[in-house]
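Lab notebook, bench 4. The sequencing result for the construct came back, and we need a structural model before the next group meeting so we can plan mutations. Quick request posted to the team channel:

Model the 3D structure of this chain.
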Amino acid sequence: MNVAQFITGLVLIVLSAGLYFASRSRKAHAGQLNQAEALNLQQSAQGRLYGKFQGTIVADQQLTTPYSARPAVTWSAHLERGTEKPDDDGSTTEWDTVWSQSANVPFRLKGAGELWFDERGGLPTLDAPSTFDQNIHDATNPIIAPYVTASRGLLSRLNKPNFHAVETSFALGSQAFFIGPVEVVNGFWVARRGEGKEYSVLTWKSEQQVRSRMSRAATIWWLLSLVAFAAGVLAILVSFS
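Done. Here's the predicted structure in C-alpha cell form:
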C-alpha cells in the first residue's frame, strides 16, 4: 500500500466534507433571506424580530479612513507583507499581516424607520465596499515605511519591499442592506449579531446581489465537494494497487 496516496485520499475526503457543509450553510442563509420579511421600523413593537431592511447610512459624527483618508462611519484595514520563499517550482510568496485595525462610530440605517448600529450592543458582520486596495513596493511610502526601515542590510536594499494594503468602509449617505435580528433598546431599534445559525450582516450589496452570490457559492462549493470526494476515493483505491 502506498501510504502517501492513502493519506492524500483521506485528506481529500475530509476536505470534501468541509466543502459540503459550507455549501449547506450558504443554502441555509439563502433560505433565511428568502423567508425574512421586510421590516417596517416606523411601527411600534417590542422584543426581538428577524428581517431585512434597506436604507441610507446617516450619523452624527464621522471618522477618517487610514489609507484613502475618506470620511466614514466604520472602516476596517490591514497591511500584509509578502516574503518570497523558495520551493520546487522556483519560489512562492507567503503573506503575513503586520498591521490590522478597525473603528466605527454609532450610525443608523434610515429607510422605513431607523435602525441603529452600535458596537456596544454587538455589531453584526459588516460587509463594506473596498475603498483602498494597493500593492506597495516603494520603501518611502508612509504606509509601509515603519515596516521596512528596520531592515538596512545589502539584501534588503537590493530587493524591493512587497506589501499589500486593503481598506473597506461605509460612508455617510451610502445605501446599504441589512438582514438579521433587531430589538428595541430604550425606544430605539438596534441591529444585533446573529445567534446560533442566524444570518446577520450589513452589506453594500443589494438584496438581489446577496441572493445571487449565496446561490452561486453554494453551487460551486457543492461541486467542489463532489470533485474532492471522487479524487479522494480514487487516491485511496490507487494506493492499494
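DSSP finds four helices and 14 strands in the chain.
Will bring this to the meeting.
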